[in-house]
Amino acid sequence: xxPMENNKTPIFKARNLNKAYAWGEMTVLAxxxxxxxxxxxxxxxxxxxxxxxxxxxxNILGGLDAADSGxxxxxxxxxxxxxxxxxxxxxxxxxxxxxxxYNLIPSLTALENVRLVTEISNCPxxxxxxxxxxxxxxxxxxxxxxxxxxxxxxxxxxxxxxxQPDILLCDEPTGALDCETxxxxxxxxxxxHEELGTLVVVITHNAxxxxxxxxxxRIENGKIGSIATSTVKIPLQEIRW
Amino acid sequence: MKTLNLKVIRSLFAMKAQTAxxxxxxxxxxxxxxxxxSSYDALRSAKERTYRNLRFGQIFADMKSAPLSxxxxxxxxxxxxxxxxxxxxxxxxxxxxAPSGRFISLPEAGSLGLDRLHLSxxxxxxxxxxxxxxxxxGFAMARGLRPGDLLExxxxxxxxxxxxxxxxxxPDTVYAIGPGAPLPDDRxxxxxxxxxxxxxxxxxxxxxxxxxxxxxxxxxxxHRIREEVDRIISPYGTAGSYLRKDQISxxxxxxxxxxxxxxxxxxxxxxxxxxxxxxxxxxxxxxxxERLQIxxxxxxxxxxxxxxxxxxxxxxxxxxxxxxxxVLLGAGVGELMAGSxxxxxxxxxxxxxxxxxxxxxxxxxSIFPAALGAATALRSIRSLTPAEALRPASPPTFxxxxxxxxxxxxxxxxxxxxxxRNLFARPIRLLWNTLGMASAWILLILSLSWMDxxxxxxxxxFHRLSRETLSMxxxxxxxxxxxxxxxxxxxxxxxxxxxxxxxxxRFLNHQRNLLLTGAPVFTELERYSLAxxxxxLEGLLLSRYFEEAWGIRPGDPMEFxxxxxxxxxxxxPVHGFVQDSLGLAARVPKGLLHEKLNxxxxxxxxxxxxxPQSESEILSTIQLSPSGAGIQSKKxxxxxxxxxxxxxxxxxxxxxxxxxxxxxxxxxxxxMRISTSERQREIATMRVLxxxxxxxxxLLLSETGIQWLLAVPIGVVSGNWLTRAALSAMHxxxxxxxxxxxxxxxxxxxxxxxxxxxxxxxxxxxTSKRIGLPEALKSED
Lengths: 241, 781
Ligand SMILES: Nc1ncnc2c1ncn2[C@@H]1O[C@H](COP(=O)(O)OP(=O)(O)O)[C@@H](O)[C@H]1O
Ligand SMILES: [Mg+2]
Description:
heterodimer; A: alpha/beta; Rossmann fold; 6-stranded mixed β-sheet; 4-stranded antiparallel β-sheet; 6 helices; B: alpha+beta; 3 domains; 6-stranded mixed barrel; 22 helices; binds adenosine-5'-diphosphate; binds magnesium ion
């Protein structure tokens, strides 16, 4: 229940990360000199206005994208100089992703979406256990199109955690959902975090959500604005947006 | 609206590969149509121009010998505008292979007459110590003759020397076909035009004519004139007058042109339909990918009509490139096709132009399918409310079938389940895509099989059915026992005699001039059926063309009127029908024919199978014999065929195959490219989940691969069927080919389709790989 102490060794270390996108003649600096450390078992909220670089940072941490310069280490994996297949293995073994638009495979049922991952991971949990964890064990045979948005998002969380990842990266998981449903999704994330001790990073531009975090990292204009460690966590039921 | 126009340009650019693919398909379809149509057009107008300029007669008659004194009576028939009477003699020309020569008199000086000569080289004959003659262009080319060359002929039992004064042809000899020959063969048959006085001296016949040709005054019906003419010439050994459409050269040309017309409609039609189908389904899929954008535009308040106009603009821009390319392609290929006609139809000039009508046809034919495709695609989107369309994904409703649940499910990996459900959740689309891929097979089989059909026909006709080495036509029938003298020639292995008779065959209101062949009951050298042992010839056997075209049943009485021999008419019941691949034929047991003609056994055609080494020796022996009018060596006929019709078919096949190849490539690659866009997001998701790129890509590959495999049987069966249908549609009277499709054709088709699939797969792979994961996930379409 208690967040990990900050003096533990970080499992993610990013130094001076830069990432630019070419926009025709112009270049957009999405990240400029980001330094960041993430610790075992903490829940971090990345907060910032739209376009500030949150997604870019998360994608780099999760091995979906490569930084232009700087370094990122996950334990002893060098993510900047990793090959494509190294990154794929890294994702397979360590990272779970949750996206704003769920990204479920429409042709697979809820349970099968989970099994798609358990089929290829080293020490997965039972697919139905993963669904139980997000409270959807009774809907395993439904296809995504037969589920509500919130349910779909919870399936995608179940899918992400079924491999027992070390890190769970969530990019605006409640972005497409109303408050009530969003809370259910956050509940599922919190439960995973508490029961499995997974390092969780949640992106949001919704400041209200930051109450659930151990640390809130503000991103502004491609840079780390501030890092706040919360001493008291607000119970989920009291969060409103 | 300006912004929307900008979007048109942007979309075009974003989809440049698909645009190029569709443009190429369109270009092929309309290009072939333009090429075929305008070369057909060129042929028809060349014919009309030639006939008009050279004053081709409208009514003809051939007779044994009629006095020139009939001329004034013929001329005074009201309605006869122009008249021309010619003397004609047949002989042998002294060349290797002993070709037959036909010598035709020219009108007297001062008159140009009808069926005029078009000289391509040299001059008309003038009087001199050695008679001069203009030689037919085909023979001159085949034998390498030039004005000034000295030739020799055996005519009327004597040898004569003459000199070539010029090279040319006349409208009645555009298609020069020798007596008894199945096909034109320029090496074996030459036509010569000489001064009447020279020819009269050679033949020893003065003041007679053997061929009449006339042109009617404007608006006169030929019927009454023919009756008058027939009445005047009937005592002189004639089968009566006939119309231009029954003149041999014109009939064969018409037959060919009609066939080209079928070809100009049928093949491009099939190709264009496939291109249209492909364009249509590609556009449906492309616009399907644009669904979200369309919904957004509608949510923003754009009217339906504006959005539709927008996409129509997009589509028209896409295809206009294709139709421009199609016109260029069509012009180039049409020129090539018209060029190959020149070897076959000796019109003085076949001038090829891509007419406005052809261009309009090509453009219309390319825009229509595209507009249709866009309309279908937009209609499906129109029926959605903006809210529905705005929802991020539009997955089909997936189901777990009972089959899957009970049989496979637990054995299948999640990825196989994805592949199967993706395929079978949208059966219509699966069918559509599979048909698209199958159409590649159809195109290839349809075009490649022509070579097989040709090769099989040649093998059947010239090796398995006709087994003689030489055949020889005699000017007049000789008693059967005379055949001994041929059979004892050195090198003769087998021999067979025939009694042939040019006849007019009639049944009800149908009639047709052809050669009636009286053959031995057990014929070995000129067989008519592939069945072994040879089926005995027990009665009148006709080409099966008559069965359908004339509606004849076995037992029906056919009336025969001998042409030229002044014999009486007789009737024979039909015994059966056989397939004659080249030309129409009527066969009857030789004995029966003698009986009908009231003659004792005789023959005027002899077939010899000889030791190949003795061929030239025998040829030179025969050449010296006075009785022979035409010797035909099967080898030479075959070579002649290869040179003329063979070239024509080969060129067309080559053109069809190239088009089929390009279309296969572009349709497969395009279809796979669209699949890639459709599955981009799923592939990215799988990769995010930690699947290797190749495993995720394998999903897409198996999906298209399964469609490809399903397409094989469909394509092969329908390609086969369509080839048969196409052949029976162009089933002209002169050609009745059997459809055969060789393993080589299937192999080649497999190679092209498989190769295109491979190219498509590699492209799909590199496109998928190039797209970064973040972008693929973000893209919401
Ligand atoms: N693929 C891309 N191409 C060009 N610019 C991009 C791309 N992805 C992101 N950007 C730009 O980079 C900046 C940061 O984007 P992002 O990380 O998505 O922000 P956030 O997630 O905080 O909203 C933005 O200005 C965005 O426009
Ligand atoms: Mg973002």
